[in-house]
Structure formats: C-alpha cells, structure tokens
Amino acid sequence: MRRLFFLLLIVQISCQAQGPQEKSEAVEHVILPKVEDKYKLIFAKKTEYKSDGFDFPVGKPGAKGYYNAQGFGGKSFHLGDDWNATTGGNSDIGHPIYSIANGYVAESADKKKGWGPVIRIVHYHKGKFYESLYAHCQDMYVKPGDWVKRGQKIATIGNNNGMYLAHLHLEIRDKPDLPLGGGYSRETAGYLDPTVFIKENR
C-alpha cells in the first residue's frame, strides 16, 4: 500500500513538472502575423485610401520651385532624396510637405539625433505595400492611425533645430516597418529611388 502511494506521488509530481514545459513550448510556437497581413487588414477597412498614383512631396504635384539637392545612391550612398527650394538656404523653412499618395500614417514622432521629426506613411498600390518617410520636419499635422489623401498637407519643412539648412529628406521603401536606419548605406535592399518611383507611378 505504501509502495503504491509513493508511486502515485511520483507520477503526480512528474505531471506537474511537465505541465509548464508544455505550455512554454506552445507559447514559443505562436506565429506572429506578417507585416503585409497586418496592413491588409488595416486597408480592408478603408479601401478608398488605396493609392491611385503618386506625386512629389513639395511644390505639388510636380515639385515646382524645388530641386533634388542630393538624390538616391551616388558616392554618399544616400537612401533618399533631399528636396530644397530653388531660392536656396533656409528660404523653404515652414513650406508645406504633402503626402505623395493616399495612405495610412504608421508613425509621426520626433526621432531626435540626425532625424528630427519624422512621418512614415504606408501606401497600398497595385496589390503591393510601400512606405514613404518624411524627415527633418518642422511641424507635423498627422498622427499614427490617421488616413491621408494624395496631396494632403502633412507637415512643414524644417532644419532639425539648425543642424542642416532647411530641406525635406524623402525615402520610399518597398517593405513597410523597416528599422528607421541612418539615411545612408551601401545596403539598399528595401529602398527605392524616390524620383524614379514617383515618375513611374504618376
């Protein structure tokens, strides 16, 4: 009888020890939704905000009065375009920045350091997701979760508290939610030439 009691006790202790382990293994195998799946669900609720084309973010719709002071790639391995007014210097500080297409505001925050205020907007265009990033803003007029239309004023051009002459740093990525990055890199996977992309998708 005593032997049976100890045998049952050992079985009970063994079962209790295995319980949490099995639960832990179940948690480890939870599959998180892909970024694309997340945005498919978001855009399914607002189909009218699918992209119907792209315009330039300044001097809308065709960047009139502005020039691309530092384009994509080149010797500096720039990951975007720097838009400046043709009048030069800080003459464009406070000028409007427009959303390049219909979309969903994924981020709007002051990222400090070399970035300053940054807005990130996700676009659903011809069955694929893209993200536009607007950096060194002065004032921002949108917040995360907002929906915007092409040509809508979302911010103004800044100079990151005097760190640079006023300009807009624009990036276009074909993979939303990538890390913020550094604005320059030899590795360009996930980044597109903004001017080329906009011209091809007007």
Walk me through the structure.
By secondary structure, this protein is of the alpha+beta class. Helices cover 24% and strands 28% of the residues. The longest helix has 27 residues, at 2-28. It is globular and about 45 Å long. Mean pLDDT is 88; it is low at 1-32.
Low-confidence stretches: 1-32
CATH fold title of the largest domain: Glucose Permease (Domain IIA)
**Spatial extent as radius of gyration:** 24 Å
Instruction: Find the count of extended strands (DSSP E, 2+ residues).
Output: 11
What is the CA–CA distance across the termini?
85 Å
**SSE string:** HHHEEEEEEEEEEEH
So, the CATH homologous superfamily of the largest domain?
A: Glucose Permease (Domain IIA)
Number of domains: 2
- Strand percentage lies at 25-35%
Helical residue percent band: 10-25%
The largest sheet, given as strand count, sense and whether it forms a barrel, is: 8 strands, antiparallel
Output the structural class: alpha+beta
Shape: globular
| Assigned CATH architecture of the largest domain | Distorted Sandwich
Mean pLDDT level: 88
- Figure out the total of helices: 4
In the CATH scheme, the class of the largest domain would be: Mainly Beta
Features of this protein?
Glucose Permease (Domain IIA), 202 residues, alpha+beta, disordered N terminus, 3-stranded antiparallel β-sheet
